[in-house]
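Researcher: Following up on the earlier apo prediction. This time include the ligand. It's zinc ion, with the SMILES given after the sequence.
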Amino acid sequence: MLVVSGARFADHLTPPGHPESPERADVLEAVAARARARGAEVTAPRAATREELLRVHTAPHVDAIEATRGHALMIDADTFTSPDSADVALLAAGAAVQAVEAVLVPGERPHRAAVALVRPPGHHAESRRAMGFCFYNNVAVAAAHARARGVARVAVLDYDVHHGNGTQEMFYADSSVLYVSTHQFPFYPGTGAATETGEKEGRGFTVNLPIEAGATDGDYVRVFELGVLPVLEEFGPGLLLISAGFDAHELDPLAQMRMTSAGFAWVTSALREMADRVCDGRVVLVTEGGYALSALGESLDLALTALAGDATVHAPAAMRPPTGRGDRSLAALAAAQAGRWHGL
Ligand SMILES: [Zn+2]
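Model: Understood. Below is the ligand-bound prediction.
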């Protein structure tokens, strides 16, 4: 497994008390060091090119972010720059591209999975605006890169507790990039209803699983086994990208879900096993949110172990039982996507 990680991710500064803190980068670096000790290759990030960004962002947006270089600015109530933020944001998007490259080397693949341990996160960044701590949409840049490299169908699975409005927006009319999201709802950023299913040729290729606050590991197991995994399998991607936020954890200060680290391990194992069957094991994980530092580190350790194939899919006793929230989410999905996905 390849892990892209670097100390530069600590150089994007946010105001004191901001949840998307530079200390998160220290957690990511420690996770990378432990992955290296388990046998992963760790490499430093490179900046995304303008061409790579312009596949999903407008030129005025890229120019606006570039213009923040050297300045501490407030972009919206949640989103702030420091002098190095423009460069660090380029590294976050570039790391996601590197991770895609690592699993797409023609012929013989040296890496079966790759991980980009990055901040700032990306999935709220839209084609023409930064928002919600995000400047460039790292996972979307990665998906577009895979398409440009000839992968016919790319799936993005987003288990961050917030809906990835930016990723949805960029591929809303695109049937070649499937976007599947589990998220607390109603909640920030307000999008992500099950009835948002895509438009034009993309109709049916946005799959939202909004879940009420308070959902447990057991609810997520239901949602994955009966919703997420059947849709992903039926789509049959050539590459699976995971928008991996860990803010559905019970310890997270921003959201009200009750996932445990064991739950994230199960979810990631299930995705890995599906990818082994469907796309020759090509999986790329890109970090998003996760604001309880201890939970972020523990969950990532377990997710990376699962991704490396060192763990089998099982539901540990530490996982909490379902509450009905997962089943209500599945019912909303089935109603919204009636007839589109046979596996539902
Ligand atoms: Zn989030």
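Model: Residues 85-104 form the longest helix (20 residues).
Researcher: Noted. I'll compare it with the apo version next.
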